[in-house]
Specification:
- Keywords: Membrane, Transmembrane, Transmembrane helix.
- The protein is mostly helical.
- The chain has one domain.
- 77% of the residues lie in helices and 0% in strands.
- It is built from 4 helices and no strands.
- The chain is globular.
Length: 91
């Protein structure tokens, strides 16, 4: 519940900065990636106590919840990498 609240706060702040303060697209993508990370963390609270390499390969668990968490976590990683690439291209 706390992770989802933090994710909503980050998304709200990112949207506010993007529309009113003219935030650039890589920053918006980065805030979206962080929000997706927090949503993924909120799906499985035990993730705070497991090693990162086990979290990344948790899709082998074959349970739908583990697959969804891995998909959301990998989406966050992808968005974060895209934001860094866009920032590099904008400069």
């Amino acid at each position: 519940m706390i992770c989802h609240g933090i994710a909503i706060g980050i998304l709200a702040y990112g949207a506010y900065e993007f529309y009113l303060e003219q935030l650039i697209v890589p920053e918006l993508t980065r805030s979206l990636a962080v929000a997706v990370f927090f949503i993924g963390m909120g799906l499985e609270p035990n993730m705070f106590f497991t090693p990162l390499n086990q979290v990344m390969t948790q899709a082998d668990d074959k349970s739908p919840k583990a697959k969804l968490q891995t998909l959301v976590f990998n989406l966050g990683v992808f968005l974060l990498i895209c934001s860094f690439l866009m920032e590099w291209l904008y400069d």
